[in-house]
């Protein structure tokens, strides 16, 4: 699925469809997509360049940060983006200070914008920093590696750093 820039000369362009997971080329350690991603996109010429608005919905399988088991998330997200053509005639040398508006604009090369690239970026931006399968997830045991949600282990639950032993002795003397 592609937004052709020349078609925007005649007015806004609307695209609706599905994008196959293989096209998005997602890292399976971050998110697994087993079904196509449904997307609706509207593109139009704008004083800043090209404005692309749309939304997507996807069934994502995300690994839990505590127990490493994957769990399913139904993601729905709207986006509103601005694109400008990449200017190859403007060499970048030295340091360039970014202005606040510079982070709001993306760039495209050639005669179009790939919807798959937009989706990949939006899916990755909308993943949680630390995904957890459930609030009370116990995670993996740091000693034996067992998933503590599925089975208990006999490992010592409190690990003491040997460098802190002198402080522990002082604490015991104070409590006596």
List keywords for this structure.
176 residues, alpha+beta, two-stranded antiparallel ribbon, 3 helices, 8 strands, elongated
Element-level helix/strand string: EEHEEEEEEHH
Helix count, per DSSP?
3
Terminal Cα span = 73 Å
Largest sheet, described in full? Answer: 6 strands, mixed
The assigned structural class equals alpha+beta
- Could you tell me the mean pLDDT? 87
What percent of the residues sit in helical stretches (DSSP H or I)? 10-25%
This entry's quaternary arrangement is single chain
What is the approximate shape? elongated
**C-alpha-based Rg, rounded:** 25 Å
Task: Provide the domain count.
Answer: 1
Total strand segments: 8
- Detail the poorly predicted runs: none
Our estimate of the beta-strand percent is 25-35%
How would you describe what is shown here?
By secondary structure, this protein is α+β, with helices and mostly antiparallel strands. It has one domain. 15% of the residues lie in helices and 34% in strands. The protein has 3 helices and 8 strands. The strands form 2 sheets. Strands 2, 3, 4, 5, 6 and 7 form a 6-stranded mixed β-sheet that branches. It has a two-stranded antiparallel sheet with strand order 1-8. The model has no long low-confidence stretch (mean pLDDT 87).
Quick summary:
By secondary structure, this protein is α+β, with helices and mostly antiparallel strands. Helices cover 15% and strands 34% of the residues.
């Amino acid at each position: 699925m592609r937004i052709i820039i020349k078609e925007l000369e005649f007015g806004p362009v609307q695209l609706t469809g599905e994008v196959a997971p293989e096209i998005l080329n997602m890292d399976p350690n971050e998110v697994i997509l087993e079904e196509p991603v449904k997307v609706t996109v509207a593109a139009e010429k704008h004083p800043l360049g090209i404005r692309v608005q749309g939304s997507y919905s996807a069934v994502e399988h995300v690994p839990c940060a505590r127990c490493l088991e994957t769990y399913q998330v139904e993601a729905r997200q709207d986006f509103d983006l601005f694109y400008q053509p990449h200017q190859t005639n403007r060499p970048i040398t030295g340091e360039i200070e970014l202005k606040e508006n510079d982070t709001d604009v993306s760039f495209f090369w050639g005669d179009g914008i790939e919807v798959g690239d937009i989706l990949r970026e939006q899916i990755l931006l909308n993943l949680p920093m630390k995904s957890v399968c459930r609030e009370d997830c116990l995670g993996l045991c740091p000693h034996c590696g067992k998933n503590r949600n599925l089975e208990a282990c006999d490992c010592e639950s409190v690990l003491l750093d040997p460098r802190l032993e002198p402080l522990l002795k002082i604490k015991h003397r104070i409590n006596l």
